[in-house]
Design goal:
The structure holds 2 protein chains of 2 kinds. By secondary structure, chain A is mostly helical. Chain A has helices at residues 2-30, 38-56, 63-91, 96-118, 144-148, 154-172, 174-184, 186-191, 196-221, 236-246, 251-269, 275-280, 284-302, and strands at 123-125, 132-134, 150-152, 226-228. In chain A, helix 1 packs parallel to helix 6. The radius of gyration of chain A is 20 Å and the shape is globular. In chain B, helix 3 runs antiparallel to helix 15 and helix 5 runs antiparallel to helix 12. Classes of the chains: A mainly alpha, B mainly alpha.
Amino acid sequence: METVYYLIQNTLPVAIPLLLVALGGMFSETSGVVNIALEGIMLFGAYFGALFVYFVQDSGLDPQTILVLGMLIAAVAGLIYSLLLSFAAVNMKANQVITGTSLNMLIPAIILLFSKMYFDSDGVTTSINFYIQKIPVLGDIPVLGRMFFQKTYITVIIGFILLAIATLIFYKTKFGLRLRACGEHPHAADSVGINVYKMRYAGVSISGILGGIGGFFYSVGVMDGNVNGHTGVAGFGFLALAVMIFGQWRPGKILFASLFFAFLRTLAYSVSLIPFLYNLGINQTYYRMLPYVATMVVLAFTSKKSRAPKAAGIPYDKSLR
Amino acid sequence: MEGKNNIYNDNKFNIRNMMNKGILSSFFSALVAVFLGLIIGFFVMLIALPANALIGFRHIIVGGLNRIGDVFYYATPILMTGLSVGFANKMGLFNIGASGQYTMGMYFALYVAFMWDLPDSIHWIVACLAGFVGGMIWGAIPGIFKAFLNVNEVITSIMFNYIGMYLVDMLIQGNSAMYVSDKTRTQYIPAEVQMPSLGIPNSNVNLGIILAILIGILLYIVLQKTIFGYELKATGFNRFASEYAGMKGKRNIIITMAIAGGLSGLGGAFGILAPSGIAGSSMTYEPINIIAPAGFNGIAVALLGNSHPIGIIFSAIFISYIQRGGTLASLAGYKPEIIDIVIAVIIYFSAFANIMNTAILGFIVRHFGKGRKSGNTLANDDIKEAE
């Protein structure tokens, strides 16, 4: 039972970044822009969030306040970075995959350049502790309290709130409906007076906000406050894309998919703590590969009847209407 | 396409015709992308360390001239990955997995170099072939996933980058014949398995670059003169039309990805089997769970070369040239990563090629092509044809 608690407590902080970033990808793709740049957006948000934390960590502010402020900084940073993608994909009608790749390559180089020149390191490491031993009241609930409200991060709660907001926007607002129309059939959307360019900017920007927050939460909950240009976010942006495909571009399924992947990753990194797996004597590297291999297996089964937005990846050209 | 061209053919000095062939326009847009990349790189340097920006920038621009041998030496692996990405691109596949294929090829080559006992004269050849096979396997898998299961090759290849990296690092660390644990890297490869050096003083430039250029030319011939090359490009233009015409799309996807993977794998073999500066030493591999940058640089090389094998040869040499300049920029207090920034910006702007071509073409037509209907509408038509 201790192991179960341990696994759940450690899965959630890993699942939240995946969840948020995959939701971001969902907003972007349902508006019709494929967002390969999520990896770079995450790193950009994480870096500026961590920089903010680095500069205020000694100011005596409450750690959780710092975390929330850092999250806002990360969100703005992610939004700004995603504008580069929107501009290329919407205005310049560029190939979205190529643009995304270039944005992914750009940010680790920038981080390494400036960190090596000014911090003499590969990135920035914060020393503040965001870890929460126990949330008052909620943490005292038997079993569930221990699973979800002890030894955790506030990121988990924020993550679920953001999920709820995103789901509401996606399904219950005029904006969400219009956004989805632009990814399915932009010409039809345009013909009823929806500004496809604006909607695509909005979709990518939301993915920038969520990507930035997800990246910051990754650095807080997974990397213990370290952001560096070498490992970056370790392919989480790409995993999030896989989570999004596995989740069939639907918020509820994306939650399930991100929990699944996060659980596999947590399992991979805690093999030595689980006697049963440890005694099997399998090289731990195999477990490290597990999330990526699982992605392939899952995609193999889900891609045949893919529900991808039909116009995702195709630049919208008014004159072709 | 031919019929439309005839309308313009009355004029002898026919820029538009050259544009239609796509050579001049892609050259111009590459030039513009490079120019913008360097300008933005300069601004980044101005922000990072204003006082030395001019000196640092001068290193980047002309620094490579002092190290021409090294330029070719480091061009070899990225030329191969560039050819790999470009080749897949011709079929409309984006091979972002060149890194994983490169790493796999490198491992296969290392394995043959250390574990197989072969006559000296053919040992390095076999090691290179093994690298080709290793990359081929790693490239074929995303191809199979794409062809039979409709999984996007971008996601698959990214996943296989990670799987390949972890796998190779594990295999190397577990092999005491290759791995020196207290140096955390592989041993030097025996001199007889290294790529034969070209014997140019003060550089390690070796046979690899010659072979890579020859392979580039060979690919050009395959693409232009063979049925397979024709089918490949046709599928790239319109997959459904080519299947309707009886081409075997699925088979071609797998073969293309396998060849692309093999090219990257060969790049890995060329990279790791190369001799290095200290006499008797060679390149070594350090298993530190980092995805090989050669693959991503290959994407830059391919895009800059417009996926054209001959263009890729030149763009690989160019990228390697400014990379050498970038290492020299550290003399002025910068870090070599400045070049990665420049390269990323170049890719970003080469994705604009469409719009830039139109703009440049419009400019040229307005200024040089007098007496014709000028303006963007015509230019637009031409671009569509050129594609």
